[in-house]
Amino acid sequence: MFILEPDGFEKILDSLREKGYRITGPKLRDGAIVLDTIDSAASLPRGVRDHQGPGRYRLEETGDDSWFSYTLGSDSWKKLFFHPIKPLFKTTRDGGLLQIEPEPPREGLKALIGVRPCELQALAIQDKVLAEGEFVDRHYVASRKGTFIVAVNCTVPGGTCFCVSMGTGPVADRGYDISLTELGSNGATRFVARAGSPHGEELLAAASSGKAGESDLQLEAELLEAAAGNMGRSLDVEGLAAALAESGDHPRWEEVAERCQACTNCTMACPTCYCHTVEDSTDLTGSVADRTRVWDSCFTADHSYLHGGSVRETRGARYRQWLTHKLSSWHDQFGGSGCTGCGRCITWCPVGIDITEEAQAVRGTARG
Amino acid sequence: MPLRTTKPKLAVWKFSSCDGCQLSLLDCEDELLAVAGAIEIANFPEASRAVVRGPYNVSLVEGSITTPEEAERIHKIRRNSRIVVAIGACATSGGLQALRNFQDVDELSRLVYAHPEYIESLNNSTPIGDHIFVDHELRGCPVDKAHLVEVLSAFLNGRKPNLPNHAVCVECKRAGVVCVMAAHGTPCLGPVTQAGCDALCPRYNRGCFGCFGPRENPNTAHLATWYLDQCGQTPEEVIRLFRGINANADPFRRESLRHES
Ligand code: SF4
Ligand code: SF4
Ligand code: SF4
Ligand code: SF4
Questions:
Q1: In chain A, what are the domain boundaries?
Q2: Which of A18, A303, B164, B253 could form a disulfide with B195 if both were Cys (CB 3.0 to 4.6 A apart)?
Q3: Which segments of chain B does DSSP mark as H helices, in order?
Q4: What ranges do the domains of chain B cover?
Q5: What is the pLDDT along chain A (368 residues), one digit of tens a residue?
Q6: What is the DSSP letter of B7?
Q7: Which residues of chain A are within 8 Å of residue B1 when distances are taken between CB atoms?
Q8: Does residue B187 belong to the interface with chain A, where contact is any CB pair within 8 Å?
């Protein structure tokens, strides 16, 4: 355990950059935290916190110099590995021959700065789905390789966070190269830092201002314990997967359909949703065709279009599909929950539908 | 690709409209060269005055039906065309001029024209599909030129056009745009509007105006409730939101009427 001062933080970014890492981290844009390329620690947002609720996100200045008093925006790291729009191949007709030119997978060193504990779990879930199963997405694998992660433990959870219920936060216990906990602000920000890999250890040894002392660790423990007690939401997951599996004809699905827009925002913002579709386009002469993969969602009609029509015509059926996949059938499919408790689907639902509330309502009166 | 001996004939027809959609086609400069190579342009008022006699393989129809003469002319076009594609908000919902559907047209004529007796106009502005069978509707105000090329290319290659029927929100999130509803409390028609503009307005911190019309399965009622309760809108403002470019599109029309007291 080390102590890292702001200049040590900058040193770590410098050495990552020197080694050829492209650095992505939180940035302020259009009144929200987004994930973007950052040049230095100076471009990180400072002294802001978020107020999140169902369908509502606002930033506020804290008046201090805190580095990480905000949590998540609608962006998640999945966009770096599972690209929203991904060309797959180009086909050209050359006389009687078809030439197929596949899009080469893109590798490259990436450093992710400020990854929250729930996000580490989201990356682990996407790894499992896209890289470790029977079917492997080579684009995902290539871009995910060589990722260096600086995680940040949450001392100020957001209003829609429920990682404690899902067992994913607010403290990172694995999946990082370096983890940080911010101690104090008022111009005296410092971090307790831990290494999770040899590379992280090497950078910390060179950049830190020494080992963390007893009182630092004491303060850290207090901050993180307070954070765990400060979750904006909670979800009782005991027996939930089984109860939801029996909930197919629960009247709540029809009720939520009256509010749900089937707009896809929850799924697009969710860091574990991986649904996609492929689109083909041809030119006017019919000699060139492109295939592109794009993010899709269980909330579109086309997503469940089989011969003759969409299997899930109603918004209720689509919402049920989404919620029960996340919290129930994901367990059967991938051996764990598909939800990390990040709360994005609640905050970024334009009409504030709350997964914890809906799951509770269905379970409360479900059979089984 | 099916072998063709003669080029298919394409005609473009204008009804009550601003010509903006035809201009989108003209704007396809590079693509137009390919269009000209693949298709014989038989009638296209914005591009040339030459008219080639029908029948036509594809007719693109711009504009809405607002006069008795138009209501008749559209049937002639249907009879002479194998495929009819209605292009733009006017042709697919009645357009901005359908705002008059919510007013007394005689009274409007008296207010606007010195000699209203010369005005021969229908009470309502209606989409092409209200009058004839339409094979495909291409939404937008104006239509997107890439979509036009996609429809023509799909026709030439004998396949289904690849155009979305889901919400603008899909494009918004794919592009990483910060949602103006959640982050700013700005009312946005994106959740009930068909994608196609690549979330143009949200990219510029504006709520969606609904240019591409209602999407599949729109839930306007609860969105309006949210505008009223959470975005601080008055019923009059909600009426104005739904009563825009696609005011006469069924879900939008019914929603705006619901808020009239
Ligand atoms: S739950 Fe909310 S975000 Fe998800 S589809 Fe329904 S309205 Fe959209
Ligand atoms: S379902 Fe909602 S809370 Fe759970 S991981 Fe997805 S966005 Fe986060
Ligand atoms: S859900 Fe937990 S780990 Fe994720 S941002 Fe919120 S407090 Fe942090
Ligand atoms: S800004 Fe509008 S279109 Fe974009 S996600 Fe929000 S509600 Fe949907």
A1: 2-228, 240-363
A2: B164
A3: 20-26, 29-38, 68-79, 88-93, 105-112, 145-156, 168-174, 180-184, 200-203, 220-230, 235-242, 250-258
A4: 9-156, 168-258
A5: 999 999 999 999 999 999 999 999 999 999 999 999 998 999 999 999 999 999 999 999 998 889 999 999 999 999 999 999 999 999 999 888 999 999 999 999 999 999 999 999 999 999 999 999 889 999 999 999 999 999 999 999 999 999 999 999 999 999 999 999 999 755 688 999 999 999 999 999 999 999 999 999 999 999 999 999 999 999 999 999 999 999 999 999 999 999 999 999 999 999 999 999 999 888 877 789 999 999 999 999 999 998 888 889 999 999 999 999 999 999 999 999 999 999 999 999 999 999 999 999 999 875 44
A6: P
A7: 286
A8: no
Instruction: Point out the residue among A34, A75, A350 whose CB comes nearest to the CB of B181.
Output: A350
* Distance, C-alpha A164 to centroid of its chain: 16
Q: Which residues neighbour A218 within 8 Å (Cβ) at sequence distance 6 or greater? A: none
Pick from B60, B57, B53, B52: which is nearest to B19 by CA?
Answer: B60
Helix axis angle, B29-38 relative to B145-156, nearest 10°? 20
Neighbour-count burial of A186, counting CB atoms closer than 10 A to its CB (0-12 exposed, 13-18 middle, 19+ buried)? exposed
Q: For chain A, first and last CA: distance in Å?
A: 47
Residue A117 CB less than 6 A away from ligand 2: no
| Beta-strand runs (E) in A184-311 | 190-195, 276-282, 288-295, 305-306, 309-310
Q: Which ligand is nearest to the CA of A165?
A: 3
Give the CA-trace dihedral at A51, A54, A56, A60, to 10 degrees: 0
Report CA(A340)–ligand 2 centroid distance (Å).
Answer: 6
Cα dihedral: A341, A344, A346, A347 (round 10): 140
Shortest CA gap B98–chain A (Å):
26
Protein residue closest via CA to atom 3 of ligand 1: A349
How many whole angstroms separate alpha carbon A151 and alpha carbon A202?
16
Q: Does B152 sit within 8 Å of A262, measured CB to CB?
A: no
Evaluate whether A62 touches A50 at the Cβ level (below 8 Å): no
Q: ipTM value of the model?
A: 0.95
